[in-house]
Amino acid sequence: MEELQRIKRKDFIKQTLYLVGFGALANSPVRVLAQAKPKTLCVLHTNDWHSRIEPFPLSDKNLGGQGGAAVRATLINRIRQEEGELLLLDAGDIFQGTPYFNFYGGELEYKLMSEMGYDCVTLGNHDFDNGIDGLIKQMPHAKFDFVNANYDFSKTVLKEKIQPYKIYRKKGLKIGVFGLGIELSGLVPENLCKGIIYNDPIKVANSIAEELKLKKKCDLVICLSHLGYKYKENKVSDEVLATQTKNIDLILGGHTHTFLPEPIFYENLMHQKVIVNQVGWAGLQLGKLNFTFEPFVKTVAQVSSQLISLTNIQNG
Amino acid sequence: MKNRILIALLVAFSACNTQLQVKDKQIHNTRIKSDSIGGEDARSKALIAPYKLKLDSLMNIRIMVASADIKKEQPEGALGNMVCDLLMRNVIKNGHKPDFCVLNNGGLRIPTIYAGNVYIRTVYELMPFDNQLVMLKLKGSKCAELLELIAQNNGVPVSGLRLVIQNNQATAIQVQGAAFDLNKDYWILTSDYLANGGDKADALKNPIETINLNQKIRDVLIAQMKEMYYEGETLQSIKDGRITKN
User: Which of A9, A153, B121, B172 has the smallest set of CB atoms within 10 Å of its CB?
Assistant: First the structure.
């Protein structure tokens, strides 16, 4: 391990010595000083919460006592204390699955996520279970952004409410977040998503990611995807997305309720690394990815991932 | 000249974008117990409290007892069997004559009803969708398409129907104990979700006749369980080989 670190340090010094000259010229002395220390950005994420406000009931032999919004809130507060500014994201299907949704239509889900300080979410198919009107009705309770780039909402009342992407500034870094949704036809009854036009996620992703990375100069481009991790059949998925696009750094997925044991690293069209992660469903786990940006060169040298399972069982 | 090179290098450098040149990857997975981080967040708990209070009063009502764990499985599962059998019983009791019942796997949202008390909450979690019951009169040829879909999906919840999946095809098909007849019309009990072509059930589109029963599937299940429990029945875990795979 020490050996490895020494090699790494040598590499690093070589690279920086080479680049420092230009970097120092390109940046004002103040900025250079400010950038001299590596910056670490923490990205927290969930997916497919499915209205699991409370932990699973203890009568459930597999999941009893696990999950629960109030414990997640404690955990997020604690991580904020440690990490400072961070990004908190969700990849869709916040709605549907417990009577909380049947009776309150998602109101409490959005209120709790606002309380936890979510920055941005994308839409899953089940977020349309009470129709476009049912979704719009709950939006005033959401103090976070909604992104989706491959649904054309222009013929619906959602057109002003959902943006293709949002750019966040955290810890002096610029992070672009855009959303992709699954084809709704066959999944959501037509009358519930009327007027939404589905566009090819790969095409859309390439153009949006290029805009974010090259035009807007984002330090990190994140895709919130509700396409699903991967399929046996030939169907667009996070795996296809990761390998068939460029300019995306991180894909946070949902829909297939996949419990990935750790983030999966793919190579994109340009043979650059893309990370894909998904953390099951029901708020059972919180994904935490820390990106450490090297000073001057703006490359991410280190990614650390923590998968945090939540359980409410006392002294369990 | 020197200046030009410098400018060119500067431009090249500033155009260089962030890349994940990950040299070091660290993975830690942890399980966090709520008491180790200070329990539930008080503000979130307070936000939930009034909603929970009302829900608990509506949901924590025992309506049935399961005599064993009832599991969702494929090609045949006791959970799918139970749901379809109860729906058939309820609808037949109310004077309808469905030949068989078909639902989709995705419609059952919990993997197991555990032995013991079954609450209204349990049925809501089993079937959170507000799908309604419909009866469709279908030509035998259309039924055959539906049966193929069942086989391709490696079995779905059914009642009144038996079949063997062989090479992804439905064979040895029986409806109410009689061999399936391609020239006969059948009445199918299903959800409006499938009737509208959900889950690629195109065979159910454009039926000869449709009867909307105007009842949510969940409400019918709750009513049927309540009635059975009142009459001293418990919920059984039954697998009778209605769908098998060769």
Answer: A9
Do the beta carbons of residue B71 and residue B79 sit within 8 Å? yes
Q: Which of residues 207-246 of A touch B (CB under 8 A)?
A: 213-214, 217-220
Query: Residue A293 gets which letter from DSSP?
Result: E
- Are residues B214 and B52 in contact, defined by beta-carbon separation less than 8 angstroms? no
Contact B31 A304 (CB under 8 A): no
Per-residue model confidence (pLDDT) at position B11: 45
**Dist. CA B181–CA B184, nearest whole Å:** 5
- Give, in order, the Cα–Cα distances in Å from B151 to each of B167, B169, B174, B200: 9, 5, 14, 13
- Give me the pLDDT at residue A25, please: 40
Q: Which of residues 122-151 of A touch B (CB under 8 A)?
A: 129
ipTM for this model: 0.85
The SS3 call for residue A167 is strand
Residue type, A232: K
Residue A62 phi/psi, 5-degree rounding, is: -90, -45
Q: Over the stretch A240-252, which tens digit does the pLDDT of each residue have? A: 999 999 999 999 9
Closest CA to B141 of B206, B213, B210: B206
- Nearest Cα to B86, choosing from B213, B228, B212, B186? B228
Residue with tokens 């000083």: A33
| 125-154 in chain B: CB under 8 A from chain A | 125, 128-130
| Structural tokens at position B218 | 């969940």
Q: Going by C-beta distance under 8 Å and a sequence separation of 6 or more, which residues neighbour residue A306?
A: A287, A288, A289, A290, B27, B28, B29, B30
* β partners of residue B175: B161, B178
CATH 3.30.565.10 fits A38-309, yes or no: no
Inform me whether the C-beta atom of residue A110 falls under 8 Å from chain B C-beta atoms: no
Instruction: Domain ranges for chain A, please list them.
Output: 1-36, 38-309
On the question of pLDDT at B7 being above 60, the answer is: no
Count other C-beta atoms under 10 Å from residue A9's C-beta: 10
> Which two structure tokens, joined as six digits, stand for A315?
């002294």
Query: Domain segments of chain B: what residues?
Result: 53-236
Q: What is the pTM (predicted TM-score) of this model?
A: 0.85
Interface check for A172 against chain B (CB to CB < 8 A): the answer is no
Asked, as a colleague might, if the bond just before A263 is cis with ω within 30 of 0, I would say no
